[in-house]
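ok trying this again, last paste got cut off
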Amino acid sequence: AGSGAGEDMRTEISTAAAFVTRLLRAAGGVGEEQLRCFRECLQEAMHEHYKHHWFPLVPSKGSGYRCIRINHKMDPLIGKAAGMIGLSHERLFQLLPSELTLWVDPFEVSYRIGEDGSICVLYESPQPGGKVAKQLESRTSCKEQWRIGRSSPSKSYNMMTVSS
């Protein structure tokens, strides 16, 4: 294993940063050099933000703290990285989904677009000790879930409480 929490979260952070960067690239209008810089700045900001909130033995602990969220407000980590390449919050709101939740947890990075969208997994690795966190075979694909999710009435879940 790596030395300390910082080592272990590299894959998760780079997966999450690459995902947000891909969303920006897909929207267009941002140069490759800016995107590269954005991704590096975002990774750095996340690393700094998460370093005392990363618990591989209890992956869900601190999950609310590590959650990246765009919901009528811009996530401060994304905002900070975008500021480094001269993108305003207004511009970000045009380029990125207006409802985006990105969970960056030990061994799993997942996201949801829209309040009642499906949760899609970007990265998943088995936890050390041989226990596989979830059986992937039993999970329906994201596209199918999206369809299923659309046909059911919208529910609001209180997924996590953040205690200070």
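PB: full thing came through this time. The radius of gyration is 16 Å.
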